[in-house]
Records
---
Amino acid sequence: MAEELKGFQQAAEDDDKPHEECGVFGIYGPGLDVARLTYYGLYALQHRGQESAGIAVGDGKAVHLQKGMGLVSEVFNHDSLNSFRGQVAAGHVRYSTTGASHPVNAQPLVFRYAGGMLGLAHNGNLTNTAELRSQLYANGSVFQSSTDSEVIVNLIARYSQSNLVEAIMKCMIDIKGSYSLVMLTEKNLIGVRDPFGIRPLCLGRRGDAWVLASESCALDAVHAELVRDVEPGEIIVINENGLTAHQALPARRRAHCIFEYIYVARADSRMDGYNVNQVRRAMGHQLAREYPAEADLVISVPDSGTAAARGFAEESGIPFEEGLMKNRYIGRTFIQPSQGARDLGVRMKLNPIRDVLAGKRVVVVDDSIVRGTTSGKIVSMLRECGVKEVHFCLSSPPIIYSCYYGIDTSNEDELIAAQKPLEEVRKYIGADGLHYLTLEGLFNVFGSGRDRFCAACFSGEYPVDVSKAQLNGKYVLE
């Protein structure tokens, strides 16, 4: 297992992208195969985390759990899903942002407390974990994992003399940061969203059944219709009496994560009123207006750059072509054991189509640059194919600050845009031209001001305070 985890971590280090956070899913559906529907929902959310997966099912008397390391299809099979019978289920796919890559940190977390059994699946990241954990330790709490999610579990248990909704409300007063939670008891499904709405959570319906999910694409996977997004600061409780909504905390200024639209979310999702594919296409239009390149072709770095590339082509009039072929059988767990193999890693994932590219001036559209290593290798591959000019365009502004709300963007000293001016970045990756979408251009795409979004990774304006230790890159949870 140690070698397997080492390989996973190495692959993550070599993957020059902001890493996704987690995906949550829940369903209340008496008479339905809720475990299998949760499996399908998690499959649709697999892009949000490939490290571990888990499903918890409530059958009216107890909550049963299965979880493990790996992809959804590796953790569950036909027999294991058949063993789950119940009326309510919650599931989770994980990429670790707080807490090590280890089976004990896989979710949902299931525990017993004064009111019975409770399962919790968390997407997001708390910013006052260390402080709360120290307080809970001092009061006799015991922790089995290194996740910030277990802090939430302990706080709910601590307030369990109240009813569950009141306990969750009190917990929400204590915790700071980003969180979308899907919880279940033996009979209830519960959804919670932080008062800024940083991480996404939506509500859907399939007949008499109710569904909660990180993205609407998971609702589509189980034939549920999107009803609405869960409001910031809202608690939703679903049981035999129907759906009850509680505004637990007043909604602060909305601060939806803008990077969800740039990279994290699936293009076929709808989040907080915006269609992700249309937003990315509009980013491409804005890019073309800001950078009127003279070129023969527009190509994308698939898949998250494709919609923006098509938008760039539509606005500029330059033809869009598929110039880079993606190997869809290599995931984030691809192990690259030596430096030589790592140098070939980009070629294993992306291969240029020489006959399309040779002799052309090319605009390459990608979603972002983190450390610049992958972008440089892509430019090098294009040069080897005989491309005359490479203009690299990004559908995001420069990432110059770390994210503390659930997306692993690396420390600031590893972010190339934080360390080098534009011209040096261009030379580093070997492109003839380089352009990042401007921050104002990004906000223009949404037709609203910056007060609706969290764009801290671009601006350094954090909607929820983070500690000096976090800002200095010293925030480590043992």
Note: Residues 1-14, 332-339, 474-478 have pLDDT under 50 and may be disordered.
---
Amino acid sequence: MNDSMQDRAADGFTLLLPVYAKDRPEFLRLAFESSVQGQTLAPAAAVIVQDGPVPEALAAELRALVRASPIPVEIVALPENRGLTAALTAGLAACRTEVVARMDADDVSEPERFARQWALLREGYDLVGTGMAEFEDDPRTVSAVRVPPVGAERIRDHARTHNPFNHPTMMYRVAAVEAAGGYQPFGKMEDYWLGVRLIDSGARVENIAEPLLKYRVGAGAFARRGGWAEARTEWRLQRELRRMGFVTTGEYLRNVAIKGTYRLMPAGMKRVLFRRFVAGGLPADRA
């Protein structure tokens, strides 16, 4: 056991929440309060990573959250914006519990989220994700539901073609993440790359199908999932999956062709295809 793990507490878990300059103070407050005061099982502590300088309004909100929080909050301030991978790596180093729960600064946790994930972690799982309900402006108005695969076999099969975990919903053992190599830069697919490495390392993984997090889908979200840069990242990921034996050569060729084409499609078409074939969910009025 390394020194960092010796210092970690076995009881409770830490909320890990990165923030950067473009996050909105009111969204951050809702994300934090829904994940702390609003939970039937609250975190033991929170680590908020400030990824570079932020506007004064956001800095003031951070100070207010720390003052009003019923749990200890540590702010890890990075001197410059380094991106999500670096922010999460810095945040994990500051966590003092064996289990960490991820949260983004503009989403909303359902009240039972952590209690249900914690119960599975207590059974011996290393990573537990959940479903997500998408919304655009009002969290009460759901536009679609993302249902993840459930069960180790289905999760592994799904991971050969798509990310099997909704990253903002993850609760995991830090030791399992560290054993898999931690967060590593991989464009906008660092979460997919982490999930695959966790599965391949033998970690016990599971998903809860129900949407226990509400995920804010901002304008241009599907446009940002496309373009040549994203296509190249997709192809690089597929090469890594083939190299490590996670996919066969045939699966690799299929994924390169299909997923590369998807990345280059117009945003509106990607939205339709993603929700129908990738997310595994239904539009809100059919869920």
Note: Confidence is low (pLDDT under 50) at residues 1-6, 282-287.
